[in-house]
Amino acid sequence: MPDSPFIIDVTQSNFTEVVLEGSRERPVLVDFWADWCQPCRILMPVLAKIVEDFAGRVILAKVNSDQQQALAAQFGIRSLPTVMVFRHGKPVDQFMGVQPESAIRTLLERHLPRESDNLRSAALEKLRAGDAEGALAGLQAAFESDPDNQALKIDIARALVALGRADEADETLKTLPMDLHQDEAVRRLEAQVRFARVAARGDELGQLEAAAESGDNPEAMHRVAAAKILAEDYETALPLLLRLMQKHRKYGDDAGHKGLLAAFELLGAQHPLVKEYRRKMVSLLY
């Protein structure tokens, strides 16, 4: 394979510089290979051609897994070749085995810097500062300039939730490609949208809390629990959802059960409340 400034042999000593730090500027393909691996040798020229065509927009970091066993173990490499995509200091994608050139290009293009990224960054800064209207306008402008950038749809949905326009956020998320619905950030946002669409607000919340406390009004229970979830008051919301599931299984197509699952998505599997209420939920199911 000819020498190239875009193809670098990586060891434990230069991994941080080449891969972790380098991926903050552009995607880094990390190819875990070995001399004895025939599929690795088939894949190598394909990867080399791709990075040469991208002319510096992507770097290929080659890791000889036999010589760099600690690196291979660190990233859980079980079969060769394994190719991981690093971006912003962490792995964001991967594939194993020999893949068609077109499939590898499609995977890479998801992580390449785009012209709309600057507009997106400015809009997200507005969202963090509490200017959801300004953020939405900026994100929509970015999407008009780059309609293939699916990440912008996720950000638009997030801004719509902040503006209380949960139904529009839900419709926006429905237009995402199916594979993105498996992304953890998207699943969490979908759970948030689920609660935002039913949550009680303002004076209405105060009026419904008493009705929810009685346990006889499933709609009140559902809407109050959703409001508490959005306020991150999980200690109040989870018992209410569990009670809704226990007393009103037919309400909202088992809204209590679905609400608990959505809350678990927001909190994460290792959260103590998730472990506690998952046990309680399972006991009601069985």
Automatic annotation (TrEMBL):
<dbReference type="GO" id="GO:0006950">
    <property type="term" value="P:response to stress"/>
</dbReference>
<feature type="domain" description="Thioredoxin">
    <location>
        <begin position="1"/>
        <end position="113"/>
    </location>
</feature>
<keyword id="KW-0676">Redox-active center</keyword>
<dbReference type="Pfam" id="PF14559">
    <property type="entry name" value="TPR_19"/>
</dbReference>
<dbReference type="GO" id="GO:0005737">
    <property type="term" value="C:cytoplasm"/>
</dbReference>
<dbReference type="Pfam" id="PF14561">
    <property type="entry name" value="TPR_20"/>
</dbReference>
<dbReference type="InterPro" id="IPR036249">
    <property type="entry name" value="Thioredoxin-like_sf"/>
</dbReference>
<dbReference type="InterPro" id="IPR005746">
    <property type="entry name" value="Thioredoxin"/>
</dbReference>
<keyword id="KW-0813">Transport</keyword>
<comment type="similarity">
    <text>Belongs to the thioredoxin family.</text>
</comment>
<keyword id="KW-0249">Electron transport</keyword>
<dbReference type="Pfam" id="PF00085">
    <property type="entry name" value="Thioredoxin"/>
</dbReference>
<dbReference type="InterPro" id="IPR011990">
    <property type="entry name" value="TPR-like_helical_dom_sf"/>
</dbReference>
<protein>
    <recommendedName>
        <fullName>Thioredoxin</fullName>
    </recommendedName>
</protein>
<dbReference type="InterPro" id="IPR013766">
    <property type="entry name" value="Thioredoxin_domain"/>
</dbReference>
<dbReference type="GO" id="GO:0015035">
    <property type="term" value="F:protein-disulfide reductase activity"/>
</dbReference>
<keyword id="KW-1015">Disulfide bond</keyword>
